[in-house]
Design brief:
single chain, three-stranded parallel sheet, Glucose Oxidase, domain 1, alpha/beta, seven-stranded mixed sheet, 8 helices, 217 residues
Amino acid sequence: MEIKEQIIDYIRKNRVSTTEVADCLGKSGVLENVLPINAKHFAVGEIQYLYAIEDSNWSVHELLAQDPCEDKVVLIDAMDVHGRAVIGDIVSKYILLYLGNKAIVCTGKMRDAHYLIKENYPIWCTGVSPVGCFNTPVNASKFEQEIKKRRDFYQGAIAVCDDSGVVVIPKEQINESFLKKLHAIEEQEDIWYDCIDRLKWTTFKTICLKDYLKNND
């Protein structure tokens, strides 16, 4: 099993939270203002990068047709849509059910909120709006450098999604060292809860002073 698969598998099996993953990244990695439409979902997986530009979702449809993906976290980058909802119920259903992906993460808004909520889809976004993108061809050449920059960062990275939001593990962090950090933070959480729940220590003694490191009891 490759290291990327090991990290995804460990996070999934141990339900490692976005909070813990962000801590392992030095308290960074969050997608700002991206939150779940539906509560109590958890998803982790490799990112498939899509984008939307010129107030249109044409490129989302086109990229999915050119390179259909499965078992991914599909990240739709709302680069140039001026607050319009990028996709709604039909495209969400296609991505999640027919293609078989783990989740949708959108850096912009979604529409058809009533349907997305009713179906309890695993979707994270910045909000909802009834005003959607147009379905018109786009000129991607104007955004070529920015698209390349963002695709190079997101494509193949790992997204972790839960009730707190979405954290991205960059490709350069996908290594044995990061997996060890995940193991260590899970162990630390267990120790902290034991100190507070069983030993009845204060949070100051436990988290700030870390007295468990010098306590043999």
